[in-house]
Amino acid sequence: MSRSIRLAVIPGDGIGQEVVAEGLKVLGAVLPAGTKVETTEYDLGARRWHATGETLPDSVLEELKGHDAILLGAVGDPSVPSGVLERGLLLKLRFAFDHHVNLRPGKLFPGVKSPLAGEPEIDFVVVREGTEGPYVGNGGTLRTGTPQEVATEVSLNTAFGIERVVRDAYRRAAARPRKKLTLVHKNNVLVHAGHLWTRIFERVGQEFPEVTTDYLHVDAATIFLVTQPQRFDVIVTDNLFGDILTDLAAAVTGGIGLAASGNINPSGEFPSMFEPVHGSAPDIAGQGKADPTATVLSVAMLLEHLGLTAEAARIEAAVAADLAERVDGPARSTSQIGDALVTRVAG
Ligand code: NAI
Ligand code: MG
């Protein structure tokens, strides 16, 4: 059967450009004969903002809707005020396309050095809510710039929003061998949102008797991610806790150069977006030093999302084999790692 994937590509800034090029190389090499990928590249990020003042024009948002998926590198630069691209581009995309499931696997591949002692087995996935919580922009300031300044940043939690992400997390847990789901929140202090999350978590759990459940306060979760990461299988949590926990997860599984993510719209109403967790890394941009592995693993998540499960598995196996051989090997450039992965998925 011939098939074509319409892929929107947003390389973005800094190393985003470098790692996306490698991700596309591997994508091209892994697709079966008869499956084509039609890419449309969008120039968004710091460069565009400096040139035109635009972050995400409505016309681009409309065009993006016509794609099966989006691959994003990273956006951001020290020359752009903090918040402009995060809110005006990344969050705008996640909200406009209702990316309510933010998926972030935390897996320690064999041969990868974790800063944790004793080479623990780490293989979990964080399902972070992506469209609510404190990230909705519900707040403001009064008496701005005066000593009496007041700022609010309200965390928005809806029963609808919680239920859909919790159910998605249960489904993912039910499909994994260990079938375990941990809710992470802070329901002893954030009692309003916390109790709503907890009640919905318990209620939806009745539909999944095969899934073992667990609850941790977010502060305790940071301890266990370091001391007993093997206890986690699937974690479901709110937008802010998920943001922080997944950086910690990246750190204990070999670093930000390996951490992949998907911003998923499970209904398929709008395209889902896949991206490395890391940013544009201005400190190493343009030097061929960036590790493209996180982007390549994000491409695997993209294929999995589009139902190309075997191809996704081939990429993951290629990455695992490459990582296992890296241990004592010489340092390689961004494109050398990409080429090695291309050879593995093609062979
Ligand atoms: P960062 O992730 O860009 O860099 C943090 C550190 O990790 C740096 O030392 C960098 O060299 C290193 N690093 C990151 N990716 C790497 C890779 N693939 N291989 C090797 N080393 C890597 O985070 P930072 O420095 O906080 O942010 C830089 C810019 O990126 C900022 O403008 C920030 O707003 C933006 N950013 C964008 C994100 C996105 O587009 N989704 C996510 C995070 C940050
Ligand atoms: Mg983050």
How would you describe this protein?
- The chain is α/β, with parallel strands linked by helices and 347 residues long.
- It has two domains: 1-106 and 259-347, Isopropylmalate Dehydrogenase, CATH 3.40.718; 114-129 and 156-253, Rossmann fold (3-Layer(aba) Sandwich), CATH 3.40.50.
- Helices cover 41% and strands 20% of the residues.
- A ten-stranded mixed β-sheet has the order 2-1-3-12-11-4-5-10-8-9, with helices on both faces. Strands 6-7 form a two-stranded antiparallel ribbon.
- Helix 10 crosses helix 11 (334-346).
- The two termini are 22 Å apart.
What are the main properties of this structure?
ten-stranded mixed β-sheet; 11 helices; binds magnesium ion; two-stranded antiparallel ribbon; 12 strands; binds 1,4-dihydronicotinamide adenine dinucleotide; alpha/beta; Isopropylmalate Dehydrogenase; 347 residues; Rossmann fold; 2 domains; 41% helix
- Model regions low in confidence, pLDDT < 50 over at least 5 residues: none
Alpha-carbon distance between the termini?
22 Å
Number of helices: 11
Strand order of the largest sheet: 2-1-3-12-11-4-5-10-8-9
DSSP, total strands: 12
CATH T-level topology of the largest domain? Isopropylmalate Dehydrogenase
SSE ordering = EHEHHEHEEEEHEHEHEHEEHHH
Radius of gyration: 20 Å
How would you sum up the global shape?
Answer: globular
CATH superfamily of the largest domain: Isopropylmalate Dehydrogenase
CATH class of the largest domain: Alpha Beta
The CATH architecture name of the largest domain reads 3-Layer(aba) Sandwich
Give the helix proportion (percent range): 40-55%
